[in-house]
Amino acid sequence: MTSMVNRRWVLARRVEDIVTESNFRWEEAPVPEPGEGQFLVRNLWLSFDPTQLLIVARGDPSAPDEGGIPLGSVMHSIAVSQVVASRHREFAPGEIVHGHMGWEDYTVTDGQGFTPAYRVPDDVPPNWAIGALGLTGLVAYFGVHEVARPRRGETLVISGAAGGVGSIATQLAKFEGLRVIGIAGSAAKCDWLTREAGADGVINYRSEDVPQRLNELCPDGIDIFFDNDGGPTLDLALERLRTGGRVVLCGATSRYAIRPPPPGPVNYLALVMVNGRMEGLLGRDYLPRRAEAYAALLPLLRSGRLRPKEDVLVGLREAPRGLARLYSGDNIGKQLLRMDDPPGG
Ligand SMILES: NC(=O)c1ccc[n+]([C@@H]2O[C@H](COP(=O)([O-])OP(=O)(O)OC[C@H]3O[C@@H](n4cnc5c(N)ncnc54)[C@H](OP(=O)(O)O)[C@@H]3O)[C@@H](O)[C@H]2O)c1
After folding, report:
1. To bridge 120 with a disulfide, which of 111, 129, 217, 319 should be the other Cys (CB 3.0-4.6 Å)?
2. In the prediction, which pLDDT does 73 show?
């Protein structure tokens, strides 16, 4: 293994404002050997997630190196990978695994990390395993079914509706018989939501007056708000929540880049007036229940009823761009990267 080259992106400079390629440094190193209790994988697909910014951004400006991962270390990523060599009793060469790896051709791991490694069933395509059936699909599935507890005919409004989580959650909410209003940041995204995802109404928050459009599209109020953005729309939704309304806190993409974080929602007391509920969910904690999500989502994927929207970059060189696209809003659907085949590009 050591004669083979491992290409990788390491963190070169903390992100101050927007992510660019200059925050990372391209390196080539020997492929590492697994130690006892470890296994070596070849990474096949990388996932991009807005919270990756939190591990590379500067936290406290007075502490220059403060952040989630040290400068000079390989950028972390959720990945679907193939086991190449193993000294771990649970993973064998040839198996496909979902786990916490890095922006590199090969990773040595003990299978732990933010998302502990697990085997991907042989009949599941890797892009589904990392997208619609990965953490993205899990939060969409459990967010809609378990946290939102939808009832047919209710109105669900979702921010970040055309992103990875949003694109799945929107479709799942439609399957439950909800009226779904999707909020997204471009005409192309709104178009996809209407034509492909079945949204009943859409709001382009960059070009439209959101309060006015919410009043038009939800004249009787909102039963469920599924929040991916954490921005001002949360307050607007709280203001319009109906009796027994629910707010699903999935993420807050609009807040991750801002230091110090802006204050939270002003209108939270609206929950008192409507006997409402606001509840978060952490996808990682649902991983032990992924069999439930697989059982529900796989038939929908196989039949073509659930159409996963994927935005796929190709080649490890593109990895910094993958993360940047989440913040420029260029991605439609789940931002993925398919690694070079063979590795080494
Ligand atoms: N709870 C969990 O365990 C869990 C797991 C996975 C993801 N999440 C969260 O779910 C949310 C969606 O994740 P994802 O992976 O599906 O990402 P995504 O929605 O595919 O990509 C991010 C999107 O956020 C929007 N955006 C970017 N900057 C923004 C800003 N300043 N204000 C408002 N919107 C902005 C853009 O869409 P527009 O063009 O539409 O603005 C962009 O396409 C994120 O907040 C993420 O952290 C949570």
Report:
1. 129
2. 94
pLDDT at 60 exceeding the cut of 70 = no
Q: Which residues line ligand 1 (CB under 6 A)?
A: 49-51, 135-136, 139, 160, 162-166, 184-186, 189, 228-229, 231, 250-254, 281-283, 326-327, 329, 331, 335
For residue 149, is it left (φ>0), alpha (ψ between -120 and 50) or beta? left
pLDDT digits (tens, 9 = 90+) for 216-226: 999 999 999 99
SS3 for 145-193 is HHHCCCCCCCEEEECCCCEHHHHHHHHHHHHCCCEEEEEECCHHHHHHH
pTM of the model: 0.96
Domain ranges of the chain: 5-131+308-338, 135-284
Report d(CA 95, CA 91) in Å as an integer: 7
Fold of 135-284: Rossmann fold (3.40.50)
CATH 3.90.180.10 holds for 5-131+308-338: yes
Tell me the best of 141, 146, 165 to mutate to test the pocket of ligand 1, counting ligand atoms within 8 Å of each CB and taking the most.
Answer: 165
Instruction: Check residue 101 and give its pLDDT.
Output: 97
